[in-house]
Design a protein that fits this description.
The protein has a domain of 267 residues: TolB, C-terminal domain (Neuraminidase, 6 Propeller), CATH 2.120.10. The chain starts with 47 loop residues before the first strand and ends with a strand. The chain is mostly beta strands. It is globular. 0% of the residues lie in helices and 37% in strands. Strands 3, 4, 5, 6 and 7 form a 5-stranded antiparallel beta sheet that branches. Strands 8, 9, 10, 11 and 12 form a 5-stranded antiparallel beta sheet that branches.
């Protein structure tokens, strides 16, 4: 077993999930949603396949696949002066760009200008990986969902009704709550999938090396991606889809969709094929990008038994999936930033490529997946200092976010 590391290569990193700390915080579970500390299941279930409502093509190779050697891109500034931006979102039939600022506000940007009235202001904890971490709009655009850590450092996913560009504070409704044992590895991604359900990313609870083995424990939400219907259901804050893989399993949380993750800071769905891509931030040496075919439920990505393709605490769990991309800290990587498969029209030669980056290594990288394997990878040229996230608008065009306060649109060069 490798010893737990507390080193940090890039001290300015915030939400990408590389801080390791051993200062625990007393946590309590509220009645609205259990934090989940029951014993893990004794067996590792195999992933199951659930066809999504709209069946994607059975092949994951674009036709024809992009040739990354011929792709030239540039960055176009679309917003500046933001305060630690970490996530973007758009509403249906609306060109307004909404930006989550880690320091506590969600703001609206129209024609390059930040509107004077914030969309939402929250009281948050201000640790290195805390604050406002993710936002998403309901498919019809009427509701805003926000993932943040409260002043005590615990995770909330709240719902607000939208009125114009403002989330009405009086309509706040807590959908989900997770007590956090440590101040790092909070995840924070929120995204509605092609099935219209809300996917929520939670890290392994923090410290370093997953000391409580939460990521492999199906009795807790920590180290998981959850899948819920966030609409209120009777007296319950949300409902769990009956097709979730662990529904009805004693001692296992029914909200869990995928597990074995350290800190799935940013993940996304391919809007053409429905596949899920996950950027899972690594521990000592390796960063990873995970991929799974559309509709695959219950996938185990191996942490903390595995870090990337390598042993961390022991043997690879039975049925666990290997990453499709691994990056080493020895090559300048430190905190992987998952992106999106490009499906827009502005850069035809890029269509079908997956774009990702890293908080320490500022290059934007493209990768092509063919029949479940990466067949091309290339740095595409532009760099983003302190990259925190990517975004995808309603026209499938992509954006890159810098913690320094700038949002860029990725364009053809």
């Amino acid at each position: 077993m490798r010893a737990t590391s507390t080193k940090k290569k890039h001290v300015t990193k915030k939400a990408a999930g590389k801080t390791t700390t051993t200062t625990a915080r007393t946590s309590t579970t509220r009645a609205t949603a259990p934090s989940g500390t029951t014993a893990p299941a004794t067996t590792t279930p195999a992933p199951i396949f659930i066809p999504p409502p709209s069946s994607p093509p059975t092949t994951n190779a674009p036709t024809p696949p992009p040739n990354l050697a011929s792709v030239r891109i540039k960055l176009m500034t679309v917003a500046t002066g933001l305060d630690s931006p970490v996530a973007l979102a758009w509403r249906k039939n609306d060109s307004t760009m909404y930006v989550a600022q880690q320091t506590g506000k969600v703001v609206a940007v129209q024609n390059g200008h930040v509107l004077a009235t914030p969309t939402l202001s929250l009281s948050v904890s201000h640790g290195n990986e805390q604050g406002v971490l993710g936002i998403a709009f309901s498919p019809d655009g009427t509701k805003l969902y926000v993932d943040y850590t409260d002043p005590s450092g615990n995770t909330h996913v709240d719902e607000y009704q939208m009125q114009g560009t403002v989330a009405k504070a009086s309509t706040r409704r807590q959908v989900l709550y997770q007590a956090q044992p440590y101040p790092n590895h909070n995840g924070g991604e929120l995204i509605f999938g092609p099935d219209g359900l809300l996917y929520i990313g939670l890290g392994d609870g923090g410290s370093g090396g997953d000391p409580n083995n939460y990521a492999q424990n199906l009795g807790t939400w920590l180290g998981k991606i959850l899948r819920i219907n966030p609409n209120k259901s009777g007296s319950a804050a949300y409902s769990v889809p009956s097709t979730n893989p662990f529904v009805g399993h004693v001692g296992e949380k029914p909200e869990i969709w995928a597990y074995g993750l350290r800190n799935p800071w940013r993940f996304s769905f391919d809007r053409s094929l429905g596949d899920m891509w996950i950027g899972d931030v690594g521990q000592d040496l390796y960063e990873e990008i995970d991929w799974v075919h559309a509709g695959t439920a219950g996938a185990n990505y191996g942490w903390s038994q595995r870090e990337g393709l390598h042993s961390y605490k022991g043997a690879k769990p039975a049925g666990a999936r290997d990453p499709v991309i691994e990056r080493s800290h020895n090559d300048g990587y430190c905190a992987i930033i998952g992106g999106y498969v490009y499906r827009g029209n502005a850069i035809p030669k890029l269509r079908g490529a997956y774009l990702f980056g890293d908080d320490c290594r500022s290059n934007i990288t493209g990768a092509v997946l063919t029949n479940g394997h990466i067949t091309q990878q290339r740095d595409l040229g532009p760099t983003v200092d302190q990259l925190t996230s990517f975004g995808q608008d309603t026209a499938d065009e992509l954006y890159a976010v810098s913690r320094t306060g700038t949002v860029y649109r990725i364009a053809a060069s």
